[in-house]
Specification:
The chain is of the alpha/beta class. It is built from six helices and twelve strands. Helix content is 36%, strand content 28%. The mean pLDDT is 86.
Length: 243
């Protein structure tokens, strides 16, 4: 007896084959996505790390006058044409900060093609008089530059002989303690030692003494400045004296 296939068998077979193809496609999809991801990652690595598209082309220096920028670039020795991602940012900073003129140096990438060098110069708080010249000293006590004349607005520090490191630290502490409106009027600092710092404030000589009780000394000094005294002694701020 010959059996004929039911009318729906062909349609069922097509649906079965379609579902089988869909299943195979679904099984292959993660593999295809993984391959695509690998290709994209490889392309990104090449683009960032090896191609010239994102190479360093410009070195920008900030924080110093334009006249010093070329010297900073030369000291940093950052190669151009090298992919930005492969440039060592630590070594250029170490090379630049070897100059005593700079307190700190930061080197950073600025995509797509720039290296930024940010320099923090040392700022003088005192000009230490030494044999006709002046050594500029910053707030950390670093004597970083010798000049022929003290810069405008920087008090000249001196002593009867060589100013000791302890005396210099005391003088720096006093200058750091003074509020800006008073510090800007100081023209000279005499350092007899860490326990006796004297400075010239406009036309008034101020005997400050040591580093103790700085806030009280400032308060007493302000009160006595209005009296027009030629000399104010706040070394013992609880019993100040004027003359």
């Amino acid at each position: 007896m010959r059996v004929r296939p039911a009318r729906g068998d062909g349609a069922d077979r097509r649906r079965f084959e379609q579902r089988a193809r869909q299943a195979r496609t679904l099984r292959r999809r993660p593999v295809l996505l993984a391959l695509l991801l690998v290709v994209l990652v490889a392309a990104g690595v090449y683009l960032v790390g090896f191609s010239s598209v994102l190479a360093a082309r410009t070195v920008v220096v900030e924080g110093v006058p334009q006249a010093q920028q070329a010297a900073v670039r030369e000291a940093a020795a950052i190669p151009t044409g090298v992919p930005l991602a492969r440039i060592d940012l630590d070594a250029p900073g170490r090379r630049v900060v070897q100059s005593p003129l700079y307190a700190s140096v930061e080197v950073a990438r600025k995509w797509p093609s720039t290296v930024l060098i940010t320099v923090t110069p040392r700022t003088p708080v005192l000009a230490l008089k030494r044999s006709g010249d002046f050594q500029l000293v910053d707030a950390d006590g670093v004597a970083y530059q010798t000049v022929g004349a003290a810069p405008a607005g920087v008090p000249v520090a001196s002593g009867k002989g060589e100013v000791s490191p302890q005396g210099l630290r005391a003088a720096i502490s006093v200058m750091s303690t003074l509020p800006g409106d008073l510090r800007g009027k100081v023209s000279a600092v005499q350092v007899q030692g860490p326990s006796m710092v004297t400075f010239q404030l406009d036309k008034t000589t101020v005997l400050w003494g040591d580093e103790s009780e700085p806030q009280l000394k400032v308060k007493v000094l302000r009160a006595l400045l209005s009296k027009g005294a030629g000399t104010i002694n706040v070394s013992a701020p609880h019993s100040p004296a004027t003359s």
